[in-house]
User: What shape does this take?
Amino acid sequence: MEKVESTQVFPSLITKTLKALYSGIIDMVYPPLCLICDNRLEQAEIELCNSCLNNFKLIGKPHEQFSVPGDIFISTAWALFEFDEPFQQLIHHLKYSRRRKPIGVVLDHYKSQILDQFPGGEIDYVVSVPLHPRKLRERGYNQVDDMSRWFAGKLNAELGNYLVKRHKYTSTQTQLNAEERMENVREAFGVNDSSVLQGKHVLLVDDVLTTGATSNALAEILVQNGAAKIDLVTLSTPQFGNA
Ligand SMILES: [Zn+2]
Assistant: This one.
């Protein structure tokens, strides 16, 4: 009996010790640094130091300037944080350097102030603004899926990413004005299952609110397919702050 136990415990102890040793060496060679300020992280800090984390500026209320040319299908839009330099860095990492963890860290850190702004128990589905399958392949993930999952969990809503699709590949929109963007995203989206959307309240999730043309086009499709109300939450918007 004793022998059996020791053969079970011993290898796992060795594995554990080796793992700890390995991560200790990795940390010595490549100490974990804050994504924003490059300072060395304390043991309890993940991806961001507390100082940077505390310096993000939560706006704390819905975005009041949401407007796109034509009809607006979004009832309330939130851009959670000011678009200052450190926050732009964070978004850049999220999008282009496969650093997904920090978003969860930021949302958790500001959890109560974020959730205080949202209606409790009213939202049925949380839906990421989808990427075209080609872009999804290029990037490897939708950078807002973790945020959608976070909101669905916290708001007790269903994650509804499977409900929508993006069937038109839209090239980068940064050089386009609002009218051109709207033209570019028109008919870009489709709905996979309209039967479950009837009368539902949907929260769309995107990383940055620029003109709102993309999310409004998706909202239009959802409304046409029976959804009753569409809200939008983004991490930030250049319509605030220094941009
Ligand atoms: Zn930092």
Notes: The chain has one domain: 53-237. The two ends are 69 Å apart (CA to CA). Residues 206 and 223 are 18 Å apart (CA to CA). Residues 2-29 form the longest helix (28 residues).
